[in-house]
Amino acid sequence: MSAELETVAHPDKESLAAESAERVLDVVVAAQDERGEASVVLTGGSMGTAVLAAVAASPRRDEVDWSRVDVWWSDERFVAGDSAERNCVQAAEAVDGALVLNPDRVHCMGSADDFGTAEDAAFDYRRELAAAADAEHRAAAFPRFDLALLGLGPDGHVASLFPGRPHVHEDDATVLGVQDSPKPPPVRVTMTLPMINSARRVWFLVAGADKAGAVAAVRAGAPLERTPGAGVRGTEETLLLVTDDCLPG
Ligand SMILES: O=C(O)[C@H](O)[C@@H](O)[C@H](O)[C@H](O)COP(=O)(O)O
């Protein structure tokens, strides 16, 4: 089952980040009230990082037991582990120690320090996802995600799933290596659409007039080949959280 796309507009990037952060806190608090923990998939990019910083700065952040939150990534750049290009490094910098996470529950994708290829790192992440599913007593290859956050590229890419690439159409593997990303750096690791769409809620975080075409294509349900973001649907909720200048009129 997948949830229809709902668009929510915001006047500017600051209000988008602040209001999205409150939404994130609402979801994580509710998940912990329900089952004592929460599982969130983060993404890279400026908006994903801005929302993390807003969560870390929120006076409500202490409503969450961050030691009982599992943090995953929908994609990562396959570079040195301490590289400033790494999504998990940028996330740590955005949070700046304000959220006391359990390191064992922060699931960074593998780096070029630890794996020979992005495909090796992808295989390892599939294993980590499957182990988490076992811990949840789920007969699946992955845990249950309460929320997945995504950016949206001007070309309609999400995570590291880019137009015209075969990865977009992968319907079995949960995580793949990417060798030819048009967005640098070229080598990456990415969750696939079925993996992303297994999340209860999937939210796009999109700011700027340069994304208006991609937002329109996602809203119109453009072909996956051209707009990978159009293939995104959470099982319970799919939100397009955007700034006004991403929308027509
Ligand atoms: O690793 C990455 O580069 C991101 O995962 C990528 O998918 C990003 O989310 C989009 O390119 C949007 O990025 P901006 O929000 O910075 O435009």
UniProtKB/TrEMBL annotation:
Keywords: Hydrolase. SUPFAM superfamilies: NagB/RpiA/CoA transferase-like. Its EC number is 3.1.1.31. It is an enzyme of class 3 (hydrolase). Residues 11-238 form the Glucosamine/galactosamine-6-phosphate isomerase domain. Pathway: Carbohydrate degradation; pentose phosphate pathway; D-ribulose 5-phosphate from D-glucose 6-phosphate (oxidative stage): step 2/3. The keyword Hydrolase applies. Pfam families: Glucosamine_iso. The keyword Hydrolase applies. InterPro entries: 6-phosphogluconolactonase_DevB, 6PGL, Glc/Gal-6P_isomerase, NagB/RpiA_transferase-like. It catalyses: 6-phospho-D-glucono-1,5-lactone + H2O = 6-phospho-D-gluconate + H(+). NCBIfam families: pgl. Belongs to the glucosamine/galactosamine-6-phosphate isomerase family. 6-phosphogluconolactonase subfamily. PANTHER family: 6-PHOSPHOGLUCONOLACTONASE (PTHR11054:SF0). Hydrolysis of 6-phosphogluconolactone to 6-phosphogluconate. This is 6-phosphogluconolactonase. It comes from Kocuria aegyptia.
